[in-house]
Amino acid sequence: MDASTDLRGALQDALALVFPVRCAGCDADDVALCEACALALRPQVTRRIVAGVEVVSGLTFDGVPARVIRSLKHDGRTGLARALAPALRAAADDARSAILVPVPTSRASFRRRGFHVAELVARRCGLRVERLLRATRATADQRGLDQGARRRNVEGSLVARRAAGRRVLVLDDVVTTGATLAEAVRALRAGGADVIGAVCIAATPRKRDAIETPR
Q1: Nearest to 118 by CA among 72, 71, 79
Q2: Per-residue pLDDT reduced to its tens digit, 154-176
Q3: Domains in the chain, CATH or no CATH each
Q4: Lower Cβ count inside 10 Å, N or C end of the chain?
Q5: Under 8 Å between Cβ of 83 and 31
Q6: pTM of the model
Q7: Do 23 and 31 meet the contact criterion of CB atoms below 8 Å apart?
């Protein structure tokens, strides 16, 4: 998967020389990411508590960062992963002492994209990722669901394997209500892992930190 993702990125870079390209952050012509938008991706670390663990995010999911992440996720512009890597690296200070465990991508999303967003950015950071979580059932798209509905949607949907005695950080691309991260924490703890926290590329804006736990 790594080789195919890298090949896809190289092909996109080559096509950009032939076909017009727009800045992922502001739609400026003839540049994948303009200087001003690149500056807007400088890490701005935020923290919140989810399921009793600290979640550290490198960016706020708003404005330019949100547009760039959406362009990576939904338009397949994998070259943008390198621009997002410093933000994830800033959030993952504890990664050297723990394994990064990604929240699984749904099969439909993986078929559509061909890559795992957070894992791709983690690789651009040189961070080690190990898949210790798997889905036990399909879940609905979380978009448009309120906090309670999101919790119910993902409750019991993940299970951990080979996790006993492992020191781990949960990895995801964007934290919104924290419902998915909370389910990942629950599953890893049930599998015997020592969950020391979670890291994300970005977090949605919040007026205050909140404690969110699964039902």
Answers
A1: 72
A2: 666 799 999 999 999 999 999 99
A3: 43-137+151-212 (3.40.50)
A4: C
A5: no
A6: 0.81
A7: yes
